[in-house]
Amino acid sequence: MALAQSLQKAIDYMEANLLNELSIEAIAKQANVSPFHFQRMFLIMTDISVGEYLRRRRLTLAAQQLLNTDHKIIDIAYRYGYESPEAFTKAFRKQHGLSPSEARKGRGALQSHNRLMIQVNLKGAKPMNYQIVERDAFQVVGIKRECPCGETGEVNGVAEFWMEANANGTSAELAELMNSEIKGLLGITDNYNEEKNTVDYWIAVEHAGKVPADFREFTVPKSKWAIFEVRGSAPIAMPEAWNQIYTEWIPSNGYEVADIPAIEAYTDPDSYKDDSSNQIWLAVK
């Protein structure tokens, strides 16, 4: 249950610092995973983003202060991170359905979002085919683009990036460079930028040797890898597999996620067909 314990530690840290400015880097550090891994893991296991959880909890506590103290509304707004009464009122009304002044006068019901306590329900009804391998550092070559992360934890613009690479022949060029263990085009997320809320997304292949002039090189560190078989049309099967990995496989197998970029390996020539077979490579420890 190491995953649940790590996630609960990060939630406890958020709760202890709700009145402070919180960074995703500091929160993810509590769970001992990368910021991008943490955001995806948190979303899958709680159904809300980190930012949304913080917003809901702060507005819940702000409502309690309105009811139980005589503090000025403007002071409560500043206390919970809002730079103006107008911004506070807008956010408060969105969550509670009434204004702070109406809440103070008891003119409606308030919506309470309670502190999260993680409990893992190990379903395990659907089997997962995987293998554990240890690999030395290896090289991938390809192209990368800085992509924004949305409130849902997904990386926006990735589908368009793949469409461009397929249309302009880049994917075909990369396929010709495959000469090592992973036989397929790779999607890799790396280098989370908290200030801009972006990641570097790579479309690449594993390649041993000289890097062609048109492409960039990235070295994947030495690690132990859990390699999962993902069957089905990739746009549907990949998200489902990630959900099962985080909510079932990791809690029941005793591994922790290593701070190394995960790899989606599109090993089937047609990853959209219903019986497509692809892979997820997740570094573990």
Automatic annotation (TrEMBL):
Keyword RNA-binding: no
Gene3D superfamilies registered for this protein in UniProt: Homeodomain-like, Regulatory factor, effector binding domain
Organism: Planococcus rifietoensis
Residue ranges of domain HTH araC/xylS-type in the record: 8-106
MF GO annotations: DNA-binding transcription factor activity; sequence-specific DNA binding
Top-level lineage group: Bacteria
UniProt-recorded name of the protein: AraC family transcriptional regulator
Pfam families assigned: Cass2 (PF14526), HTH_18 (PF12833)
Keyword list, A-Z: DNA-binding, Transcription, Transcription regulation
